[in-house]
Design brief:
It is a multi-pass membrane protein. With 991 residues, the protein is mainly beta. 7% of the residues lie in helices and 47% in strands. The longest helix is centred in the first third of the chain and has 19 residues.
Length: 991
């Protein structure tokens, strides 16, 4: 027995022996960690696989760790990089290269409330990264991907720097609801899709586009028109990086308005038989090109500076952007200033992930008065712009004013600010199970100012107004994500509770007949008190949602995804407030089967199919279910017996408590493939969508209703199409690389029903009058309709009937079209009218990228086939009868058209086109002096357009309104001309 006095010595020897044993048994592994550029990743965490404790790499990326005997793997992780397992069996020194963690273009796509590897996606999802963005004068992020994604149509009609692109994904989905896809910025949906213009393009790294209903159903009521997910750039741990991207650009008018000059104007008056004395009374001896007078060579410059970095479990990125864009129309343009900061911190042994993002954008805008585009057509070229003393030449007639004076003397501007704050926290409860919360605040303020002084020769009274609008929201969710591998099985599950609150508010005030016009909008009370106006508005609504999704795959061959979302919107009545939106999709990777292994040239082949339901509430304002009243200046006054009841208030909206969600039911079948080591890749998708319970305003009788229209769920429409996206590496040489890619989309939208019942009233109709041709003599001349069996806004026009008598070809060209009086001859009877579908047959885009050494060249073509536009511009301006006092197009000098304006299919033109959208030549210097990388590029934009359309530009805002296919450039419906641009840009990063 050991004496107690020797016990301490025994314990000391035992502990010492165990320690020595441990030291002898353990092995020390050393190594260095770098990124794909060969730069050290400091602060990276190194652990033994299966253990929590570890060490951190030093500033040079070096580490040293002791591992137990038999250890086979180390786990290396760092914020911003993909986690990597390193085999250390039989090694004492290792070298590790970490690749950036990407939720974007390379291998992972964002699918809403989570991510999925691209090859494992079961729905129709397209992605595009920064290397494939369009270059040049990119002032709206959507221009980066215009024409490059099958099924996604982005139309920037005209060249107005303050206009917003028209975005459509897989055609038209509603008759009166919003058509624009939901835009999600770093996980937070934008309250208004037009806010995309406030996002600096230089901050964006990739887009993920959810196209089919099975993919968008996870967003429920907000995903009815598809979803575009925008991912901005993030920082990575390591040394501080400084990047600069900037360009300077010059814009010129791409195409004039084809108007007659002074001599041609005089000839046209003589041809029209105008009395010489009348011609002389208009002739002021000038030769003014009014299109040239209101346009200019415009300059744009843009700058983006970003600083990023981090250490250990922390990374950040901060950026500042500035852009000043002059419009090619005088006194128009946009100035933009934006700041963005985002950061990520990992804590509690990387179990806790904290993220924060702050963004603010400020825009100063000068708008165009679109009336000036009418005036350049109605003003003779023999009028001068200025008097000899430099003052504006003054004149005023029917639809006539000096457009230069009007545009330069008016105040027509706005200031808008968008602020977004995001916070997110995710905690890993157990391996594979994470619980998180997300919250965001969005504030969007718009202040507009408009002041019109007394214009030269017009004699108008002065008018001024200001308005202030606020679109604010609060959003938040609690989410639970689970991802677990069980051998060849993988299960990923997501559950979310989401809350959205929207508050919109507007205030406006106006005055007229100001005593001191020089004070402008800053002294509205200086106007005539009897003419002052004031107004205000506010609405509020909420959306509360519950959603769940489960994705399963076996052996990366068989995939299935099921989701269910339940949305409640306060816009609807109590009985129809909640909507349920399910979705299911599946995929089979055929190339993973054993029977495919012998086909060496097949790299990948996957078949997928999906079905889902989404809702649409955009057509409904927060109070559309209620009977509302509107009034004039009368108000309740209990002290005045005549005003005890607001008798001037009358109903301006019928109640319809039965309003319910529009529902879009969609089916998609897709095939994706890769051939010859993925040198040739592509995907083909076929879709068939049906929108039920269409929301539309219908005419109703008074009584029993209080107002003559009512919003109701009546009718259905279908959308069917095929999308093909292809990409080929023509050559992958070390010196020369050439890639060609493209897409083509075929789509058809048809109205299948405009009938239904509500509130005891049956609506049975097969057509609804919509758009009118505009201009003098066109009252109630409807030419577009909603017609069952046809595309929305189908034309219904008299056929051109041909000639009734030959005409002398020396005075009238195209004589086969006119009668003896130079009048177009038509049959306007119903028997000679026909429906004509204006929508496109298909659209396409073709991209070619070549690199030789440090040189690069790429170009992008896009186009549309089959669309038709009613050329109202030529219809009105090429008519000799509109002289004197008006100008005429050069076509009007020879076509011999006289008499009243007549809407017929003669003016319905093929507006298909192919546009060389941009071409870029670049040179990359690589590492030069203080620069880690340096790239210069020269880009031409809108270099040419091939089209049969005789109007100013064939690219119109199709599908945007009932005027979509009517090119109306007069009577106040002008067209801001498109420009041709040359851009010089630079991309650099400092060492």
């Amino acid at each position: 027995m050991i004496s107690l006095q020797f016990l301490p010595r025994v314990l000391f020897l035992l502990i010492l022996s165990l320690s020595v044993t441990g030291l002898v048994a353990q092995t020390t592994i050393t190594g260095k960690i770098a990124d794909t550029d060969g730069k050290a990743v400091s602060g990276a965490t190194v652990t033994v696989k299966g253990q929590k404790a570890g060490v951190a790499a030093d500033t040079e990326g070096a580490f040293s760790i002791s591992v137990p005997p038999g250890t086979k793997f180390l786990v290396i992780s760092s914020v911003g990089y993909a986690e990597q397992e390193v085999d250390i069996a039989g090694k004492s020194v290792v070298s590790v290269v970490l690749t950036p963690e990407s939720k974007t273009y390379s291998d992972v796509v964002v699918v809403g409330y989570g991510t999925v590897r691209r090859r494992d996606a079961t729905a129709a999802i397209a992605s595009i990264g920064s290397k494939d963005f369009s270059s040049g004068i990119i002032v709206n992020p959507m221009q980066q991907i215009q024409g490059k994604i099958a099924g996604l149509s982005i139309t920037q009609a005209g060249g107005d720097p303050n206009s917003n692109p028209i975005i459509r994904l897989r055609g038209q989905t509603s008759l009166s609801g919003g058509q624009t896809p939901l835009i999600v910025l770093d996980g937070i949906p934008l309250d208004d899709p037009n806010q995309i213009s406030s996002i600096p393009p230089g901050d964006i790294t990739s887009y993920d586009i959810l196209k089919d209903v099975s993919a968008t159903a996870i967003y429920g009521s907000r995903g009815a028109n598809g979803v575009i997910i925008i991912n901005t750039k993030k920082g990575t741990a390591g040394r501080t990086r400084v990047e600069y991207n900037g360009f300077a650009a010059m814009d010129r008018l791409a195409k004039g308005f084809d108007l007659a000059n002074a001599d041609e104007w005089r000839q046209a008056n003589q041809l029209a038989g105008v009395d010489p004395a009348t011609i002389a009374s208009y002739d002021k001896g000038a030769n003014t090109d009014w299109a040239d007078a209101i346009t200019r060579t415009a300059f744009t410059h843009s700058h983006n500076v970003a600083v990023s970095g981090g250490t250990g479990g922390f990374n950040y990125r901060a950026s500042v952007s500035y852009m000043d864009q002059e419009g090619i129309v005088i006194n128009t343009g946009k100035e933009q200033f934006a700041v963005r900061f985002n950061a990520q911190q990992k804590a509690m042994k990387n179990k806790l992930d904290l993220q924060v993002s702050v963004f603010n954008n400020h825009n100063n805008r000068n708008y165009a008065d679109y009336a000036i585009f009418a005036y350049i057509n109605t003003t003779p070229p023999v009028y001068p712009v200025y008097n000899p003393d430099g003052s504006y030449y003054a004149y005023n007639g029917f639809e006539q004013q000096n457009p230069v004076a009007r545009q330069e003397l008016q105040t027509n501007k706005a200031v808008d600010d968008l602020t977004q704050i995001l916070g997110r926290a995710d905690y890993e409860i157990i391996r594979g199970l994470k619980l998180g919360v997300l919250g965001s605040i969005s504030r969007y303020n718009i202040q507009t100012q408009n002041f019109t002084p007394t214009l030269p020769g017009v004699g108008n009274i002065t008018t001024g107004s200001q308005a202030n609008s606020n679109l604010n929201s609060k959003k938040g969710d609690v989410h639970l994500n689970y991802n677990k591998d069980f051998g060849r099985h993988n299960i990923a599950a997501t559950a979310v509770y989401e809350y959205n609150e929207f508050n919109n508010q507007r205030f406006n005030a106006g005055g007229q007949d100001f005593l001191v016009p020089d004070l402008g909008v800053d002294y509205l009370q200086g106007g005539n008190p009897a003419l002052n106006t004031i107004g205000s508005y506010r609405d509020q609504f909420k959306i509360i949602s519950f959603l769940g999704r489960v994705a399963y795959n076996y052996d990366q061959r068989y995939y299935a995804t099921v989701s269910l979302r339940r949305d409640g919107s306060s816009k609807f009545g109590e009985n129809n407030r909640w909507g349920t939106f399910p979705a299911v999709s599946a995929a089979w990777r055929i190339s993973g089967e054993s029977f495919m292994q012998g086909i060496y040239w097949l790299s990948d082949l996957k078949l997928s199919a999906g079905y889902g339901v989404v809702g649409n509430q955009d057509a409904i304002s927060p109070y559309n279910t209620l009977l509302t009243l509107g009034g004039s200046t009368r108000y309740l006054d209990l002290g005045n017996p005549s005003y005890l009841f607001p008798q001037s208030y009358t109903p301006n909206q019928n109640a319809n408590p039965d309003l319910k969600w529009e529902e879009r039911h969609g089916t998609n079948i897709g095939l994706s493939f890769g051939l010859f080591d993925n040198r040739f890749t592509g995907n083909i998708n076929w879709y068939n969508d049906k929108t039920k319970n269409l929301l539309f305003n219908y005419q109703v009788p008074i009584p029993p209703f209080f107002y003559n229209t009512i919003l109701a769920n009546v009718g259905e429409l279908t959308n069917k199409g095929v999308e093909i996206q292809l990409n080929a590496d023509v050559t992958r040489g070390k010196k020369f690389q050439w890639n060609i890619g493209g897409q083509i989309t075929f789509s058809k939208t048809r109205i299948t029903s405009l009938s239904g019942s509500f509130a005891g009233l049956d609506i049975k109709t097969d057509d609804v009058r919509m758009g009118q041709a505009t201009g003098r003599g066109y009252a109630n001349n409807y030419i577009t309709f909603l017609k069952v069996g046809y595309a929305p806004y189908v034309f219904y026009l008299p056929e051109f009937a041909g000639v009734s008598k030959e005409i002398d070809p020396t005075t009238q060209s195209n004589q086969q079209y006119y009668d003896e009086n130079g009048e177009l001859t038509y049959s306007v009877t119903a028997a000679r009218k026909k429906y004509i579908d204006p929508s496109q047959n298909f659209n396409y885009g073709i991209n070619s990228t070549m690199a030789y050494g440090k040189w690069g060249f790429n170009f992008f073509l896009r186009g549309v086939s089959g669309q038709k536009v009613f050329n109202n511009y030529q219809n009105i301006t090429s008519n000799l009868s509109r002289l004197p006092g008006n100008n005429i197009t050069k076509q009007g000098l020879t076509n011999g058209i006289r008499g009243s304006q007549t809407a017929s299919d003669y003016w319905l033109e093929d507006a298909g086109f192919m546009r060389l959208d941009n071409a870029t030549l670049s040179y990359t210097f690589g590492e030069v002096g203080a620069f880690e990388s340096l790239r210069l590029y020269l880009t031409g934009t809108n270099l040419f357009v091939i089209t049969n359309y005789t109007g100013q530009d064939p690219e119109i805002a199709n599908g945007n309104s009932v005027q979509s296919y009517i090119d109306a450039n007069v009577s106040g419906l002008g067209f801001y001309p498109r420009s041709r641009t040359l851009t010089l840009g630079i991309n650099l990063s400092l060492k």
